[in-house]
Write a structure and sequence with these properties.
This protein is α/β, with parallel strands linked by helices and about 210 residues long. The chain has a single domain, classed as Uracil-DNA Glycosylase, subunit E (3-Layer(aba) Sandwich). Helices cover about 35% and strands about 15% of the residues. The chain contains seven helices and eight strands; from the N terminus they run αββααβββαβαββαα. It has helices at about 15-25, 60, 70-80, 120-135, 145-155, 185-190, 195-210; strands at about 40, 45-50, 85, 95-100, 100-105, 140-145, 170, 180. Helix 3 packs across helix 7. The longest helix is centred in the middle third of the chain and has 16 residues, at about 120-135. The chain is globular, with a radius of gyration of 16 Å.
């Protein structure tokens, strides 16, 4: 199996994120408070790309989408669709296993107010480019939100203007890889009805249909 280069625990690439990391290490010394590594095998055919670690989610637990509402919806859906096995208990030692999918983020460190900047996305992009290239069986990418959508398009060498974000849209970014868009599975989007559990299940099913 291939391997990828991951950011160091004290990655210095983004001054704003470094400062926020140090602040959180002081406030929450038992938390992960470092770049969050991807979850799942590089041999997977599906890659799920999120925005960035949540402050009290992945930044605390050290596993993508683990410990916050977005993870509740994501992992419940993956379990229902056969893309995960076990039980999701909001902690990295819950024994949950992904099946033919991998989860990563466009930006690996938690940003203030959950909003990374375009410059931070650019600084972190080499890790996503490397990850995409290291997945020999990759057939589909599920982009969770517009920020992740832009990061994937750029990382695959596409032009963002040629692939506009739209929930449920399927983009043939490369001859081999399809990208499927979803609104972010955040509490804000689900509370306002912008995204329902059924809508999210539908895009995951769309992604699964490209795993051939």
């Amino acid at each position: 199996m291939s391997s990828v280069v991951l950011p160091d625990r004290n990655c210095p690439r983004c001054a704003r994120l470094v400062a926020f990391r140090e602040t959180n290490r002081g406030k929450f010394p038992t938390w992960h408070n470092a770049p969050v590594a991807p979850f799942g095998s590089l041999d997977a055919r599906l890659l799920i790309v999120g925005l960035a670690p949540g402050l009290r989610g992945a930044n605390a637990t050290g596993r993508p989408f683990t410990g916050d509402w977005a993870g509740d919806l994501l992992y419940d859906t993956l379990l229902a669709e056969g893309l995960a096995t076990g039980t999701y208990l909001e902690r990295p030692d819950d024994g949950l296993t992904l099946v033919d999918c991998r989860i990563t983020n466009a930006v690996r460190c938690v940003p203030p107010a959950n909003r990374p900047t375009p410059a931070e996305a650019k600084a972190c992009r080499p890790f996503l480019v490397d990850e995409l290239a290291a997945m020999p069986n990759l057939r589909a990418v599920l982009a969770i939100g517009g920020f992740a959508h832009d990061a994937v398009i750029t990382s695959l060498g596409g032009r963002k203007s040629a692939f506009p974000f739209a929930h449920g849209a399927v983009h043939a970014v490369t001859p081999k890889i399809a990208m499927i868009d979803s609104y972010h599975c955040s509490r804000l989007n689900t509370n306002t009805g912008r995204l329902t559990a059924a809508m999210f299940a539908s895009v995951v099913q769309q992604a699964k249909s490209h795993l051939r």
